[in-house]
Design brief:
The protein is built from eleven helices and twelve strands. A hairpin with a 4-residue loop joins strand 2 and strand 3. The protein is of the alpha/beta class. About 2% of the residues have low confidence. Helix content is 34%, strand content 20%. The strands form two sheets. Strands 1-2-3-4-7-8-9-10-11-12 form a ten-stranded mixed β-sheet. It has a two-stranded antiparallel ribbon with strand order 5-6. Bound molecules: S-adenosyl-L-homocysteine. S-adenosyl-L-homocysteine binds next to strand 8 and strand 10.
Length: 351
Amino acid sequence: MKKILQDLSFSELENLILSLGEKKYRAKQLYDGLMRGKKISGINVPADLREKLAAEYEDEPVKIIKTLTASDGTEKYLFSLADGNIVEGVLMKYEYGYSQCVSTQVGCRMGCKFCASTLGGLVRNLTAGEIIAQILTVNALHAVNRGGSAAARAVNKVVLMGSGEPLDNYCNVIKFLRNVTAAGGINISARNISLSTCGIVPKIYALADEGIDVNLSISLHQTTDEGRARTMPVAKKYSIAEILKACDYYFEKTGRRYIFEYTLIDGENCDGRHADMLVSLLKGRCCHVNLIRLNEVKERKLSAATEKKAYEFCARLEKGGLSATVRRRVGADIGGACGQLRAGYLKGENI
Ligand code: SAH
């Protein structure tokens, strides 16, 4: 595989351009083109520069090979990478704008029992450029051109909740966060970015110290370590108590309220006693609980809680003093959480 130009920050691109013996202003032209989701071959710079770059860098590192559109407007994409690997993403359309869910790894090695991304294990990490290019490609697809600004922006919120564990691909994810929030680029504010993790404790501390201040979501899904270990192998390594301590540190450093994701699995974690335990675990914390009804993965034998049960669970948390919501289901008719689309595609299903 060739190198990926979208991995570079603006100043790195400037250095590259100077090292190629080109005029510095070419870096700005190239950067503006890249931030508009253009291929190298489609950027308006002299042909010999395009050729020099194309010899070493991927012309189009991320391509949309399939788009599914739900009746509520939600779009799901299959992206192909330069080496033929496939990842997926989702674009959710809200009143306040478009929110894109991006993948950070091909597959995942965390092994959560309810999740399709982990079915084939981890194939490889995505580079920072492959993560940002998912957004650039979707922006280009929607081609919303905001006046004279450098980047055509449709997407104004980003969630790192596609396939992969972002904190298991730490360096590339941090680089992505720096590039996507950089002034002069697509410049998405850190407060509009959410990173979701299954709870890799040392990396939560490291993230708190980066000074990027994105919103932190923790996939909790259970109220005890033993219960959590049944569906999430990572729980054998890091306890809930350690996760909560790391969240305290994150809050202290960033001032950001954090979110707990809690996927409701029938017979597993959504009885009244689980709600009460969650209240005693989280009460008094500056946090929010996001309840998700399981998207059933057919390779796994777990069932979703009913909608009624989800709202009862939510009401019990609220009564106990927690801030909680049941996540609205978007794109239900195109199916699938985390990795399901890719898993179907790889098995040759007609999607
Ligand atoms: N690895 C990260 C981010 C990716 S998953 C993490 O674990 O947080 C994003 C969220 O979707 C996580 O909370 C994850 O637990 C949840 N999820 C995965 N598969 C799901 C499914 N089949 N139904 C409902 N939620 C699911």
